[in-house]
Description:
By secondary structure, this protein is mainly alpha-helical. It folds into 2 domains: 16-131 and 231-258, no CATH class; 145-213, no CATH class. The protein is built from 11 helices and 2 strands, in the order H-H-H-H-H-E-E-H-H-H-H-H-H. The protein has helices spanning 16-19, 22-38, 45-61, 65-68, 76-88, 103-128, 134-141, 146-175, 186-213, 235-241, 243-258, and strands at residues 93-96, 99-102. It has a two-stranded antiparallel ribbon with strand order 1-2. Helix 2 packs parallel to helix 11. It is globular. The relative contact order is 0.18.
Amino acid sequence: MGGGHAHPLYRDGASPIHRAPAEVKIVSLVVFVLAVVATPRELFWPFGLYALIIVGVWWAARIPPAWILPRMLIEAPFVVLAVLLPFAEGGERVSVAGLELSVTGLYAAWGIVVKGTLGVAASLTVAATTTARELPIALSRLHVPAVFVSVLTLMVRYIDVLSAEARRMRMARISRGDSPRMLHQIGATATSVGTLFLRSYERGERVYLAMLSRGFDGHVPAPAVGAGCAAAATPRQWTVALLPAAAATTVAAAAWVLA
């Protein structure tokens, strides 16, 4: 995949979580998120247990909360949406700090915030312990269709290229006296976005034709084990890596039984 094998969300480390094959981390993440989503939002204690599971994985992966928490701000737009729900929903209402809020809206807001936060935290944990090279290989081992693996591989490879192109375009505008943060320049900003899209499309065509001329058949070959690629997961690794997901599934089942 060319240059570096890491991505901006990756935190270099040598913990057991880092060394675990990526396919078991992906499956564990999916099972964990499904358990969180399936939990009734009217209950509160299961989400505290889910948070403890994530914190335990952080401890095992040697990821300090101060490193990962700022990166969770990506969910801020969903939090803003959730804040509006208690005012917009109908039904039974309750007075909170002098405000009449919908009970249904409060539960909906709570569900969005807590489930979204746990999902983002779990996803960032996997991203922080998995290199960009490992992801396509893991998806291939999980029998994801080759076309999706190829798209993901190329996306990961060229996202940095497009980011650098966007930075160069912005620097060129600033050097010519532009002020990208000013509202009156929104037209120029929109034009830059369109230009970047066209350049990306043209670059993609050139790269694809170059790949075809070199015998590309739609399948990205996996690198040899040891060249930045861990061996396929053993049964023991599957068992150990799925412990957090199994714990989350147990909590979700208990929540439905006790609900």
